[in-house]
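To illustrate this point, what follows is a protein record of this kind.

___
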Amino acid sequence: MARKVLLVTTVEWTSTARYAGGFAAASWAVEALCPPGAPVTLSRYIGEWHAYRPLRALPCLRKAIDKAAPDLVVACDDRAISHLLRLYAKELDAHGEQSAIVALMRRSFGTPENFAEMMSRAGSMQTSAKIGIRTPETVAVTTEQELDDCLSRFGLPAVLKVDGSWGGDGVVVARTNEDAQSALRRLLRPASRLRNAARALKRKDAHYLLAAISPPPQHVSVQKFVAGRSAASAFACWKGEITGALYYDVLVADGAIGPPNVIRRVDCPQMAEASRRVARQYGLSGIFGLDFIRDEAGDVHLIEINPRTTQGGTLAFGEGRDLPSALAASLTQCETSRRAAIPNDVVVFFPREWQRDPASPYLMNAHHDVPWDDPAVLKDCFETVAKDLVRPRNSVVDLLTPTEQCETSSARPIWRRALARS
């Protein structure tokens, strides 16, 4: 009988579907707990998906685990890992070491008790510095006076971050004292109950309703600014030891602090050593990621630990660099199959670079991370792009949207030609 993984996500990211393809290539059965309508529900690699409901997060999670009976659980976003850790704590308190869910969580994540520190941006960076990883000084702040004290040491610019945020949200690069103080007040003060209720209705997202009912505590840290270019590692590990990893520099990002649009895979001993030390320090099992800044001298500075999968980890660069395959092999203790290796070290994440600049030179020369192997997911990507973008002249939408002149096969818009190929 095939081993089984349960992918858990609370957001509608296409990357979850890409992880499904990676585990399926390793001959694992794949199920998912996700919002209805998430791209992963369309994936041909999913045997079954289970509906995630924000207002009943833990019951949904428990039900999905009971029904799927997975060998491993993989968290695909920050909120998902928070839910999983809450369920672990409840099970441990109620049933102790005999709980099957407790055993599953420890098998899937290593040492769940260590995640509280790892998910604290200040705590994780301070521990990273203690174990010899180059990292900018990072301090938790709760008052304007504490922030002033940090700024007097760090100088400007400085980076303010709130715990539990992702994708560049909840991060502010402050270039003046006034900007820093304003950012601190904004980050410490959650949105009003009325505003969250309005967001819940407008965006049809019950997470905002939960925030309106019970505003979450805000934990803010300030980090010394490091000039340079973003870089990252994504790694699979088992009982604190790295079993597969890839390292990359970010060539183009979605904004100054957003997710990557274009990356270049690199061999980087510094990122490899930092990843090894973090995995060992926290006793990790699973798939995780680290964010770095590469300075002008070429040295990398760890700025953040991602306690879950990242988009970079979806990429397959061959043996030891295909993370779902590496994690699967860690559990079975035997070699597993994997996806074909990407032949180009430069990768364009689809469809963001198309949206940013349809004339980007990377679109001509890099590998396009397009889910050709998963047609329904690909179609959803195109439909989302066409729906979300306003159609400016000569933009990517002109390539995606049919026109009256599209009568011949060669004149058809690119999304129709793509689907015809698949």
Confidence is low (pLDDT under 50) at residues 391-422. The first strand starts at residue 4 and ends at 8. The chain has 17 helices and 15 strands.
